[in-house]
Structures are given as structure tokens and as C-alpha cells.
């Protein structure tokens, strides 16, 4: 459900203009999941809308809950039978974030990411993207969740968001619109493996939306071995793009770095990363999220805690902002890099 579909309903059913406002309030503010809940509509009209329309353009096949009840993963079916996964997580009490998908599969083929093994089937539409947020709002409203609102949205689920800029940017417009989801731009983050044209477009269109760049190595040979995209957009191009992005937006950039045991998690790799970040014009406007690898079917292994701490401490010693991200949802394959459309967990 989005503003365009609401206008289509108003037009097709020849409803008075004020009904559009009521529908927006019902779905975007009250988080109704059925037209049958529209008690301010005549019963006959309500029944007709219920029979002929669905609120969501996707079907919820199953929702998995982590053992600690702070992460939920939804298996969602699209109109053509294809499936995606979407995650709701709480990094701390009372704070809930939706991690949404932008594609069915992914073409980037990062070796450590389960979604990359699927290949790319198709892009999601703007409504298929924003309906994931609407679903999680409905889920929060229906269940005993310790919050009355969804706090943040991150485009870090299945797919490369900047490989689908048309629909992703349209969905951001929907999510931030005052007469729709009304989510503040600074509560939205878009992650990219390094499609730099999309980064520049995002800086122009959405300068207040957070940018997260998946780096994972600070030497071209190593980065290319785990992220094929580096062969087209190498570290020098990334450095230039980040400098231009920060100059343009004056916003902090989040650097994502997954720690792979014996591959990119040694002190020497931390030294390389600190040198890369310090080479930027404004290294103080970066924050590095270190992610201990969440194991999938690949041959990679997650870093030990000792090496993760050593890596973090080196970056801190160089005056860089850094944290080790808390891994949520591992037991339901809902953590970073684990989404791959599994029917059972």
C-alpha cells in the first residue's frame, strides 16, 4: 500500500477525495492490516474493498522469531511467486529497526554473503520495498513488542539497493513523505557494495539519508577476491567518491567491515584500513562498523573475539570512530549476510 495505490482505489471506486486522507491515516498511522477495519466507511463499501483488495502487495508465508525475541525474520511471497526475506530487530530495548530487501537475490556475488549465491532474479518495485516496512509496523501493532513505533529502516536486506535506484529512490520518497509513512530521512540508511554512480545520485536526492559503504578490505587485491565489484570500482575510486559525498552532504559515512578469520581480520589489515580512512579529507566523518562474520554455507569463518577486539582497538588508537556490531538473529539465519530465502529455520 502506498499513496499511488490509494489514489487508484479512490479513482476506481469513485470515492470522495476525503476518503484518500482516511485511507492514509488508516494504513500509515493506525497500521490497519485489513480494509475490514475501516469502521468509518459504509459497511457495503468496506465489504467490497475487503473482497477485492489486499492491503499488502506481498503475502506473509512465515515469521521466525529468535530465541531471545529481539529479532524476527519474515519470509514474504511476491505476486509472481518469488520470495524474499525481511528482518525486524532490536539492538537495544525499545529501539526497533526494519532491515528491508530491494531485490530478489543479488548480482554482486560477494563471497561471504548468502544472498549473493542466489544470483539476481529481479528488482523489487517501490511498493514491494515499502510494504516490508508497512508489514513490520502492522506486526509491531499486533504483537507484544516493547515499542509503539518502528524507529529505523535500513536497506541492508537482500540485494544491492543502488543496483535498483529507480525503485529504491521511489520507496525512500514514499517512506519520508508527510502524507505517507512520515519517517525522518536520518532514520533511513542505504547500504552499498560500491556502486558509485548511485552514491552520487543519492547525495543529490537524499543528502540526509545515511550512507553505509561495504568495504571489507583496504587493499585492492584482497577486496577484489571477496567482492568482485572492486574490479570496476576500486579503492581509489571509492576514496574519491567518499570525499565528494562528504563534501556535498557534510554527513557521516558508515563503513561496514565484516571480519573473516585468517583473511581480513589481522592487525595488519586494521593498519591498512586505518591508513585508508585517514587518507580521506574528513576521516572524522566516518564510523566503522566491525561485523564478526555470520557463518553461512561458504568456506569463510568468523573472526575470534580476541582479533576483533584487537582490530577495533587499533582503529580507536588512530582516533577513528569504531564499534563491533552486535550480531542479532543468527539462530534464525536473520543476521547480516545470512538472508537467502530458506523455508525452515
Automatic annotation (TrEMBL):
Family matches, as InterPro entries: Aldolase_TIM, Methyltransferase_A, RlmN_N, RNA_MTrfase_RlmN, rRNA_lsu_MTrfase_RlmN/Cfr, rSAM, rSAM_sf
Subcellular location: Cytoplasm
Molecular-function GO term, any one: RNA methyltransferase activity
Domain Radical SAM core: 92-331
GO CC term, one of those recorded: cytoplasm
Keywords: 4Fe-4S, Cytoplasm, Disulfide bond, Iron, Iron-sulfur, Metal-binding, Methyltransferase, rRNA processing, S-adenosyl-L-methionine, Transferase, tRNA processing
SUPFAM superfamilies: Radical SAM enzymes
One annotated GO biological process: tRNA methylation
Gene3D superfamilies: 1.10.150.530, Aldolase class I
Pfam families for this protein: Radical_SAM, RlmN_N
Main location: cytoplasm
Cofactor(s) needed: [4Fe-4S] cluster
Homology family: Belongs to the radical SAM superfamily. RlmN family.
The protein's name in its UniProt record: YloN
